[in-house]
Design a protein that fits this description.
Keywords: DNA-binding. One of its GO terms (molecular function) is DNA binding. Pfam families: HU-HIG. Residues 7-103 form the HU domain. InterPro entries: HU-HIG, IHF-like_DNA-bd_dom_sf. The protein folds into 2 domains: 1-33, no CATH class; 35-82, no CATH class. A hairpin with a 2-residue loop joins β1 (2-4) and β2 (7-14). It contains 2 helices and 5 strands, in the order βββααββ. α1 crosses α2. The two termini are 36 Å apart. A 3-stranded antiparallel sheet has the order 1-2-3, with no helix packed on it. The chain is an alpha+beta fold.
């Protein structure tokens, strides 16, 4: 494992699915060493010299998550600064014809 600043990553080799005979190329993949649970995240924020109580931060984040879910399920994407762009993604199995395709394939 290596780091850039505080970002932890690993290098890995992968072949191209479009050209399986080509030599593998090297890529980077982010590495997480643990998951911070929601309540621990709330506490973490409140310990950063915030003028807001842990309860206020908790409430704001709960409302933010509800609104984020509402917007992305309504077909919108939401950009949260440098954190990223949030949107819904789905995958499905294929059907031979449009008529044969149903939502059960999602």
């Amino acid at each position: 494992m290596s780091t850039i600043g505080t970002l932890k990553y690993r290098r890995y080799a992968a072949k191209s699915p479009q050209d399986p005979d080509a030599p593998a190329k090297w890529y980077a993949r982010a590495v997480q060493d643990r998951t911070v649970e929601f309540e621990d995240f709330v506490t973490h924020i409140s310990e950063h010299n915030s003028p807001y109580s842990r309860g206020v931060i908790h409430g704001v984040l709960i409302d933010m998550l509800a609104c984020l879910k509402e917007l992305v399920l309504d077909g919108k994407s939401v950009r949260l600064g440098d954190l990223g762009l949030f949107s819904v993604g789905i995958s499905s199995k294929g059907a031979e014809t449009a008529e044969a395709w149903t939502t059960s394939l999602i």
